[in-house]
Amino acid sequence: MKPDETRPLYVREWRLHRLMTLAELAKASGLSPKTVWSLEQPGHTPYVSTVRKVAEALEIKGPDLYRLPREEDLTMIVPTIYKLREWRRAKGLTQAELAARAGTYQPHVSDYEKGAKEPTRETAGRLAGALGITVFDLRQHPKPQAD
Predict the structure, then answer these.
(1) Alpha-carbon distance 101 to 96, whole Å?
(2) Class of the 72-139 domain?
(3) pLDDT by residue, tens only, the chain of 147 residues
(4) How far is residue 39's CA from residue 23's CA, in Å, rounded to a whole number?
(5) Superfamily grouping for domain 11-66
(6) What CA–CA distance (Å, rounded) separates 26 from 54?
């Protein structure tokens, strides 16, 4: 079943809002990068099941894809930080080392790890970059290092 063909989809805007690459969204949604690319093109009318997969990967409701992200949606990325402590430890870094690499302060890293403080999108991006991963990766548990 196809959704209303007159309503535009805002997949690209939501993907960028979540600091995800096209490949990351494809992987998270179980769709091919070509399919995700086509969803971002004007006039594309996807199947409802495809909209559902993309929305779940973006951690939003399906109908939200038919509107632009709003400022209040920014807080929805905060759960990506909950794996920060695991990633930092997997990379063998102290909070102070991570803070220095990300251009922030150690007490802030501590607050992010505890969930006591919410990082901005920019800070989340810098933390992920300092760890050599993407913001999307922060949602996942780190994989054990091969010896």
Answers:
(1) 9
(2) mainly alpha
(3) 454 455 678 898 888 877 788 888 999 899 999 999 999 888 878 889 999 999 999 888 888 998 888 766 655 444 545 688 889 999 999 999 999 999 999 999 998 888 778 787 788 889 989 999 887 777 776 776 554
(4) 13
(5) lambda repressor-like DNA-binding domains (1.10.260.40)
(6) 8
Range(s) for CATH 1.10.260.40 in the chain?
Answer: 11-66, 72-139
**Model's pTM, two decimal places?**
0.54
Q: Name the residue among 53, 17, 9 with its Cα closest to residue 136.
A: 17
Contact status, residue 11 vs residue 3, Cβ threshold 8 Å = no
Give 7's Cβ-side CA count (13 Å radius): 15
Q: What 3-state class would DSSP assign to 46?
A: coil
